[in-house]
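Entry:
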Amino acid sequence: MKPVTGSKIVVGMSGGVDSSVAAALLKDQGYDVIGVMLRLWSDSETENRCCAPDAQLEARRIASQLDIPFYVIDAQEAFYQAVVQPFIDGYAAGNTPNPCLNCNRQIRWQFLRSRAKALGAEYIATGHYARIESSENGGYRLLKNPDPDKDQSYFLHVLTQEDLSQTMFPLADLSKPEVRQLAREFGLAVAERPDSQDLCFIGHGNYRDFLRKVNPSSIKPGPILDLNGSVLGEHQGLADYTIGQRKGLGITGAEPYYVVEKDFEKNALIIGFKIELGRIGFYAADINWINGESPSESISADIKIRYKSKAMPGKITPLDNNLAQIDLTESLPDITPGQAAVFYQGQVCLGGGIIQREAL
């Protein structure tokens, strides 16, 4: 249910154009808006991009311009435990985790909603590009944003009915150019501010440098093997590679080589030719069904295995222990353990889970 005019709403603000326009739209619609920035963890040598001093300054300026209260709330320890440590552990286990998923589930929703309630607000809002719609049974559905290049429902598949019932997406039907134009019309100085693309807590390096600094014992050289077990070279750490990667292998052959698998037990990087790369099925764990109920039998859906990948038709078979078997209609070359598989029927996001190492 949409909150009545005048309801108190906490907007998660980052100092960027999306969250700033979200706050401006809600203020313009007559809501009692409170701006909140979460102070997130970063190591001692860098600033977290989501809450760096310049981002805080921009968010404060926007809040002052909109005449709304603004607070910075310390979430460093919660962020480290929920996002950073699982990221480190995931790579140490040979996976390729997506930290944005844990951040959305545990920080941008659970943590922020708890702080919003402490401020007297029953709703939170963010600058995500996605839609929330009431369903026929009185619940809520998560839908794609109409702009396929900006839709962020993939990252939001972790949300629950409770989350959706207390959330607003003011940018639900807008494209990025439309949001920037609204920022200009509102007179917001962040209208031309570029989007942040990299992981917020890593700073100006890359994730490989970060992992070598925080957990050097998990980055060990090992053999590069072909599918027959022949040694073709040496890698400098499994975390440097992802499934489907072609560049940077340092191995030449009659055809280009690709990363086919990472054998964590042997600390071996398995490479092969493109024809040997694809998989037609896999398992996913920690499945979240947004409607709160697992299907009683297999269902057909479109499946995305990465944020920017094209959805592939397939079948999802729910299993015990919150697992699902995914069978695709065509083989895909970059099914990567640790990444999310997200399920869609038309514009509706059904939910998703984490791709597991066991292949089908």
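The chain has seven helices and 17 strands.
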